[in-house]
Amino acid sequence: MDDMQSMWGIIGVIVFFCGIYALYAFIRLKRRGEINATLLLGKEYLYKKCKDKESYTRKAGPALLIFGLVSVIYGVLDIIHCYVHPMTMVDTAGMFIFFVVLVWFAVYTSKLKRMYF
């Protein structure tokens, strides 16, 4: 395996674990009502200052779930592509979908922050 292929494989592993973390944050959001500041807010926001926590969690939850699922799926596809069996078209399509969802997630959660904090 060449160095470039190895680097892309590591990125796939990172995306996979990021997706696992997002799914974990989603479960905590649904079960305990805990807002994950790392994924949803950023350092300048405190979850305790939320104007309507119930409404925020109802709107942020599905976005967090979608981001987590897409990240896990793309991470698995990229790991398979880099380490098991090359599938360039599937990996490229997965990467495109992942980036679209990533941008959507960032824009959507930023709008939610402005509305509720």
Number of helices in the DSSP assignment: 4
Biggest sheet features: none
Give the DSSP E fraction (strand runs of 2 or more residues). Answer: under 5%
What would the average pLDDT be, to the nearest integer? Answer: 90
Number of domains: 1
Distance between the termini: 48 Å
Structural class: mainly alpha
How would you describe this protein?
The protein has 117 residues and is mainly alpha-helical. The protein has one domain (3-116). 82% of the residues lie in helices and 0% in strands. It is built from four helices and no strands. It has helices at 3-32, 37-41, 53-84, 88-116. The longest helix is centred in the middle third of the chain and has 32 residues, at 53-84. The chain starts with a helix and ends with a helix. The mean pLDDT is 90.
